[in-house]
Amino acid sequence: MLGLGAFKPSGPLLGGLLWKIPYRLSRHQKYRHRQRLRHVDSVVETLSAALAKQGTTIKEIERWKAEMPTEAEMEPKDKYTVFARYERKYRKGIHKVPKWTRVSQRVNPPGY
Question: What span, in angstroms and rounded, lies between the C-alpha atoms of 14 and 78?
Fold first, then answer.
């Protein structure tokens, strides 16, 4: 054995990464998340207005406006959690989704 005596190795010392993700989002993370959602909404509105001024539209922007709710229309449950099939209540924190600051997760299955 290693002969460490009273000292016991911790998770990282046993090899491999130990990721510590808190259970809840902090209020600062929630604030920045709301700001990101609002910024995306403003970019979509700006593009839509500029294209309307030229008399054209883009299918993707029209689809986004039809399908995706704005930040003000979203419930807090949908802002901060996403559907997860294998979680206990079928929801997990948005901050546990990979690349959650870059990928838009606004629509969840109905009833969840």
Answer: 38
Alpha-carbon Rg for the chain in angstroms: 21
d(CA 98, CA 112): 20
Rounded to 10 degrees, the C-alpha dihedral 44/49/52/54 comes to -110
Cβ pair 92, 82 in contact under 8 A: yes
Tell me the two tokens of residue 86: 């294998």
Q: Name the 3-class secondary structure at 92.
A: strand
pLDDT tens digits for range 35-78? 999 999 999 999 999 999 999 999 999 999 999 999 999 999 99
Residue whose entry in the numeric block shows the structure tokens 């902090």: 26
Residue 93: phi, psi to the nearest 5? -60, 140
Find where tokens 């010392």 sit: 13
How buried is residue 7: exposed, middle or buried, by Cβ count under 10 Å (0-12/13-18/19+)? exposed
pLDDT in tens, 70-107: 999 999 999 999 999 999 999 999 999 999 999 888 99
